[in-house]
Amino acid sequence: ELVDNLMQVATQDLGFSQGKPVATYVIYKSLLHSKAFEPDITTIFDRIIQMMGSAIEKSEEIKHMAYWLSVTSTLLFLVQKTLSPSASKPQPSTSLFGRMTQGFRSTSIISIVCHVEVKYPALLFKKQLAAYVEKLYGFIRNDLKRDMSQLLATCIQAPITSDGKVFPVEFWESIIERLDDLLDTLKERNVPLVIIQKIFVQVFSFTNVQLFNSLLLHKECCTFQNGTYLKAGLDQLEIWCSKATTEYAGSSWDELNHVRQAVGFLVTKQKSKITYDEFTTKLCPVLSVQQLYRLSAFYSNKKDDTDSVSPELKSKLKSLVSEDSGDPDSDSYLLDDTSGLAFPIDDIRKSVDEKDFSNMKPSPELLEKPEFQFLAE
């Protein structure tokens, strides 16, 4: 009967309390109340997984997916804690101050986590939850990557008007709007910080690969004018990362190092004065010799009065590439896209804490129902 009631309630959007999804709280408290973690055989976990699957599949709207990512990831955290008591219990302290501190913590923080002996049904439930988290995370990340790919295709080369002027960076503004929309959605749905960071870090890594590889594959893009256009766009991305703060953007800005340094080279005016040491240690330290050679060989100054690198530097780079790979024209200069890697599930522990659940309160309407009186305990 409890499970039937839970199935009816948990599929609804119950909102949030203390920045955590109420649905997660209701499901977890119901599992504890029914002692579902203790038996060797139970069907309650299967029914919850089926319920979640049906709820998730109702819509592919990002807000819907973000809500269920919040529910499943926070529930996974609680289940992880429940099944790993040794990892979450503080070690006893021998000092008087240590014992006093632990005593204070135990009375001031009421944890809803109940540690149990590991049983197969619960272990399987944890794996199934993890699979849902990875699926939802991948869907949201790939949806953003798909939109970014289309927008970046319009940003790689400066659009020129008939009189030779560059269009304003309106395409980059569309990218910023898309990033803002997703960030707002993830924040509204209280998705754990570590997941939000990982989404944007991987998408910025994807952006770096897309822009950098496009530069080194299209000679017409390696110009001073185009570098100026790209730099204006990258400046907007830097401002976005700053406004989003490290709390949400993580190391996203650092993921653009390759394209940032390549663009830095394109907008350098006195390229003929660049020495090998300056090129490799100051201007473009993360670029390989193959990438430096390709960039310098592709650079064109036909439409402006900037010079190219000296013949001596270009010759030295070509010689080093030949020594390294035997073929200065090989495609070893291209970056590999690693932005499709699965989310590391264990990282959820880093941005969720048991005490975050201590003051959670389901809605009064839910507590008024006789079958959910135990939630107030």
Model description:
This is Dilute domain-containing protein. The chain has 377 residues and is mostly helical. 59% of the residues lie in helices and 1% in strands. It is built from 15 helices and two strands. It has helices spanning 2-10, 22-33, 44-56, 62-83, 85-88, 96-108, 120-153, 170-188, 193-217, 224-249, 257-266, 276-283, 289-298, 311-325, 364-367, and strands spanning 16-17, 20-21. The chain has a two-stranded antiparallel ribbon with strand order 1-2.
Helix content: 55-70%
- The fraction of residues assigned to DSSP E strands is under 5%
Overall mean pLDDT stands at 85
- Report how far the terminal alpha carbons are from each other: 19 Å
Count of DSSP E strands?
Answer: 2
Characterize the overall form.
elongated
Q: What is the H/E order?
A: HEEHHHHHHHHHHHHHH
Poorly predicted segments:
86-110
Question: Main beta sheet, described?
Answer: 2 strands, antiparallel
Describe what is shown at a glance:
This protein is mainly alpha-helical and 377 residues long. The protein is built from 15 helices and 2 strands. Helix 1 runs antiparallel to helix 2 (22-33) and helix 2 (22-33) runs parallel beside helix 4.
What keywords describe this structure?
single chain; 377 residues; mainly alpha; two-stranded antiparallel sheet; 15 helices; Dilute domain-containing protein; Vascular_dev_regulator
List the helices and strands and how they pair.
Blueprint: H1 2-10, E1 16-17, E2 20-21, H2 22-33, H3 44-56, H4 62-83, H5 85-88, H6 96-108, H7 120-153, H8 170-188, H9 193-217, H10 224-249, H11 257-266, H12 276-283, H13 289-298, H14 311-325, H15 364-367
Antiparallel strand pairs: 1-2
Helix pairs in contact: 1-2, 2-4, 3-7, 4-7, 7-8, 7-9, 8-10, 9-10, 9-11, 10-11, 13-14
